[in-house]
Write a structure and sequence with these properties.
This protein has helices at about 25-40, 55-60, 60-65, 85-95, 110-115, 150-160, 205-215, 235-240, 250-260, 270-275, 290-295, 345, 350-360; strands at about 15-20, 45-55, 70-75, 100, 120-125, 135-140, 190-195, 225-230, 240-245, 260-265, 280-285, 300-305. The protein has two domains: about 15-160, Rossmann fold (3-Layer(aba) Sandwich), CATH 3.40.50; about 190-360, Glycogen Phosphorylase B (Rossmann fold, 3-Layer(aba) Sandwich), CATH 3.40.50.2000. The chain is an alpha/beta fold. The model is unreliable at about 315-325 (pLDDT under 50). Helix 1 (about 25-40) packs parallel to helix 10 (about 270-275) and helix 7 crosses helix 13. It is globular. The protein has a six-stranded parallel β-sheet, with helices on both faces. A six-stranded parallel β-sheet has the order 9-8-7-10-11-12, sandwiched between helices. About 30% of the residues lie in helices and about 15% in strands. Helix 8 links the parallel strand 8 (about 225-230) and strand 9 (about 240-245). It comes from uncultured bacterium esnapd14. This is Glycosyl transferase, family 9.
């Protein structure tokens, strides 16, 4: 619900989305298309600018140039950067907007800043990191059934504030924008495996199990493709034949749109596949996003031990086992591809992943 009316009926010409995110991944930016799509639906003629930390904009330039629903990007100072000159320069550019929408995960850039910059209309969340201060429209999220509010709750609240129909579970995530590229001949049904790895080894189901899974799926799948980062090329080439590691997002999206199933970790390729409508099976380690995935990705299935310590979040990078309250004495962060891996992942068996995959792979048609 909102405790103040939405912005005036006169449509804004320039909309800023304040999103000073702390170390986001590519999957986090894919999900930001949810908010951007709602704003576009409310104001189809407006120029929508995504305000992101400078380091984030540099790291994800390819995504922002071709796969974001924002028209352009305005860089704000990075998280932890309090240089007055940088903020003064940003303020000069931020004052041109008619409306500001504050991302609930924006740190240190919210309604009070937008008000100081002279932005007349400011929408945000009472539960956001910057809170309700300075907002002209405050969105209040009711207590969810499980845990804390997630992207579906925030999207529903933002839709109400903007005066557009709320998204349903089927259409919360807009289709991932991409330009198709040629692919090698892949026999259907195609299964894509994304073991994950650098730098998030603690999200990876051990590679040996993916290899065993691929061997067992060979009786059902026509083709098995492997995706990963450029750092994982050599080991993926040892794992399988069709390797798409370190490829551009257009090529990756083309593959995922062509695929019949993706199996992998809670990571960007899985988010992209789900946004393309491709069925996904995600193996959850020490992350807490399974319920949100189930709400916004209708063709998703999660495999999760649901140990209480899997809900741990926001630990300092490389903090070590002494500060990780894990009931199974798992280490944080993990050193590399040889582990050690968290128990919540090593307890997932090849048998159960194989059974889940067989339920989702379409029947293989005989060839003439």
């Amino acid at each position: 619900m909102t405790d103040r009316p939405a912005p005036p009926h006169s449509a804004p010409a320039r909309v800023a989305v304040f999103a000073r995110l702390w170390e986001p991944g590519l999957g986090d930016l894919v999900q930001r298309n949810i908010f951007l799509a709602l704003i576009r639906r409310a104001y189809p003629e407006a120029v929508i600018t995504h305000v992101l930390p400078r380091a984030t904009a540099a790291r994800f330039g390819e995504f922002l140039a071709g796969h974001s629903l924002a028209a352009d990007v305005l860089c704000c100072p990075d998280y932890g950067d309090d240089d007055p000159a940088g903020w003064a320069h940003f303020q000069q550019q931020a004052g041109r907007f008619d409306l500001c929408v504050v991302d609930p995960d924006s740190h240190g850039l919210g309604g009070t800043h937008a008000a100081a910059y002279g932005i007349p209309h400011r929408i945000g969340f009472a539960l956001g990191h910057t809170g309700p201060d300075g907002l002209t429209t405050t969105i209040r999220i009711g207590r969810p059934l499980f845990g804390a509010p997630d992207l579906f709750d925030f999207a529903t609240g933002l839709a109400q504030a903007l005066g557009v129909p709320p998204p349903g579970h089927v259409d919360t995530v807009p289709p991932f924008p991409y330009a198709p590229e040629p692919l090698p001949d892949l026999i259907a049904p195609t299964v894509v495996l994304h073991p994950g790895g650098a730098p998030h080894w603690n999200r990876r189901w051990p590679l040996a199990r993916y290899i065993e899974l691929a061997e067992r799926l060979g009786e059902t799948a026509g083709s098995i493709a492997w995706v990963g980062s450029a750092d994982e090329v050599s080991e993926l080439q040892r794992a399988g034949k069709h390797v798409f590691a370190g490829v551009g997002l257009n090529r990756l999206a083309t593959l995922l749109a062509h695929a019949d199933l993706l199996i992998g970790s809670d990571s960007a390729p899985a988010h992209i596949a789900a946004a393309l409508g491709t069925p996904t099976i995600v193996l959850y380690g020490p992350t807490f996003t399974e319920f949100m995935w189930a709400r916004v990705y209708p063709r998703h299935e999660g495999i999760n031990r649901r140990y209480p310590c899997q809900q741990i979040r926001n630990l300092q990078r490389g903090a070590g086992p002494a500060v990780m309250p894990c009931e199974h004495s798992c280490r944080y962060a993990y050193a590399g591809p040889d582990g050690p891996y968290p128990k919540c992942l090593t307890d997932i068996t090849v048998d159960e992943v194989h059974r889940a995959a067989r339920r989702r792979i379409p029947l293989r048609m005989p060839h003439d």
